[in-house]
Structures are given as C-alpha cells and as structure tokens.
Amino acid sequence: MINTLYLAPPVFFFIAFVFSMLGMGGSQLYIPILFWLGMDFKTQAIPLGMLLNVVNSSSAAITYGRKKLIDWRFAIPFGLSMILLAPVGTWVNISLPTKPVILIFALFTASAATLMLSGWRPKKGNLTSSQKITMSIVAGGILGFFAGLIGRGGGSFVVPLLYIAGLEAKLAAATSAMVVTFSGLSSFVSHIFTAA
Fold first, then answer.
1. Model confidence over 84-105: pLDDT tens digits?
2. Contact of 24 with 162, CB cutoff 8 Å
3. Where are the transmembrane segments (predicted)?
4. Which of 37, 104, 143, 151 is the most buried (most CB within 10 A)?
5. What is the value of pTM for the model shown?
C-alpha cells in the first residue's frame, strides 16, 4: 500500500485538472481509488473523497466566479437544498452496512456514466423563473441526499439539468462547480461530525 500511495497525488492532480473544467469535483474517481488503496469505504474513503472534491470544485468555482460565469439564481437554491439534505444522506449512510452503500455508489456512478456515454444531449430549455427555482430545489435536495449517502457531489447530473433549464454550456459547468462545492462541503462536514 505504501508504494501505491505515491501514485495517488499525480493521479488525483490529473483527475482534478480534467473534472474542474467539466464543473465536477471528481469524487466518482477519488472514492474508489482511496478504497482500492485500502481505506475503509464509509469512514475514510467517502469523507476524504469529499474533501478532495470540495478543494477541486471550490478552486474551479472561485476562478469561474471571478469571470462572472456563475448564475447565482440557480446556484443558491440548488446549493441550499443540497446543504439541508446532505446530513440526511449521511445519517442513512451511518445506518446502512458498507456493502449496500458501495452498491448504491456503483449504481449512481453507472447511471451518470451511462448518461454521458449514451451520446444523449439535452435540449436547451426555456423555463419560467418559478420552474427554475422549483427544479433547483427538488434536484438539489435529491442530489444533496446522495452526496451525504455516497459522497458524490452530483456534477454529472447538475450540468445537464442546468442546460435543460436554459443555461449555456459554459455557464452550466461554472454554476455546477459552485453547486458541487455546496454539496461536497455539507457532506464532508456531516461525515466529520458523525464520525466525532
């Protein structure tokens, strides 16, 4: 394990570089890698994966924010609902054995991968203001729950949802980086407090 640990920093750097451009944190790769390196899935891999996720997505969000690419009309309701529901997901995580959590993580990740590899491209929508807020709150709550449960920030789903809501692709990626930061931070803090 000691030898393989030396491979982690360059691999994580590459993951961070690629995923920050996509508006994602990279936890879908951080967590399995940490688990394969010998860390406990629930008590070590998920919290550390979320911490790396937050560092990556927040640095990207700061860069996007300086360029005024973040649409706060989406980021705030999305982020707030994620912050509120992530602790609920963390509580469920604690209540479940490790294997079901790994299974849910795998299914969630497989769904995101299938969505990306299928070639499906969402049609840009033109939702009303109330529809945008409703979508942000509902989707944010669901993804926030999963962030707490399995340590996934949900960027794979946030970007297409924001595009469907009417954001340009670049704005969707930028706003997603901020949203993923919200969910990751709430999930990480929840896991730390429950571990304590």
1. 998 999 999 989 999 999 999 8
2. no
3. 12-39, 74-94, 100-120, 132-151, 171-193
4. 151
5. 0.81
